[in-house]
Amino acid sequence: MSAGCNGQDVAAAIRLAAAAVAAERGELTRLDREIGDGDHGENMHRGFQAVVARLDPDAGLTPGAVLKLVATTLISTVGGASGPLYGTAFLRAATSAGDVATLDTGAVHAALAAACGGVQARGHAEPGDKTMVDALVPAVAAAHGGSVAELLGAAAAAAQDGVVATVPLVARKGRASYLGPRSAGTADPGATSTAVILRAFAAAAAG
């Protein structure tokens, strides 16, 4: 997956992301219990397990088709705001990828940028609002490299920096915004799950 990624590569990355979400669901739920509804970890886990169940390794899907399957599954299975936001992200990425058989670094960056743009359009959030946008925007800005693995590695590192930066912020969007100043001091759950997924994508590309 160093030079590019085909549909099987993308499906493998999604499976690794599902495993990462499963491993982190307790932490995601803890964070969401602090400043949200307390269900982010379980919702994301349920959604990605449904995705894995629908991914046929022998289907011969293009990268775009895999991403579209992820989008529609998350929209139908993930509750709260996360389902529509993540669904939009993957749907925009799928549209950006089109029907090509292999994504090169330029196409991967374009898909990541499209995903970020979709989330911002859907949630009307900007950097500093304490949302998943705080992980996505720096990830897109940092997503450069000679290979897909290098690009995703840089994006994942920047996303994690974005998560850390949400800790002192006062939420301006979503359920956390109802808490006002009490939302400061906890990392945003959506930004955290975004970083978890991007780290899994980077690991898949490197592997």
Overview of this protein structure:
The protein has helices at residues 7-35, 40-54, 63-77, 82-97, 105-123, 133-142, 148-166, 189-206; strands spanning 5-6, 102-103. It has 207 residues and is mainly alpha-helical. The protein has one domain (5-206): DhaL domain (Serine Threonine Protein Phosphatase 5, Tetratricopeptide repeat), CATH 1.25.40. A two-stranded antiparallel sheet has the order 1-2. α1 (7-35) packs antiparallel against α8, α2 (40-54) crosses α3 (63-77) and α6 (133-142) runs parallel beside α8. The radius of gyration is 16 Å and the shape is globular. The protein starts with a strand and ends with a helix.
Keywords:
207 residues, mainly alpha, Serine Threonine Protein Phosphatase 5, Tetratricopeptide repeat, two-stranded antiparallel sheet, 68% helix, globular
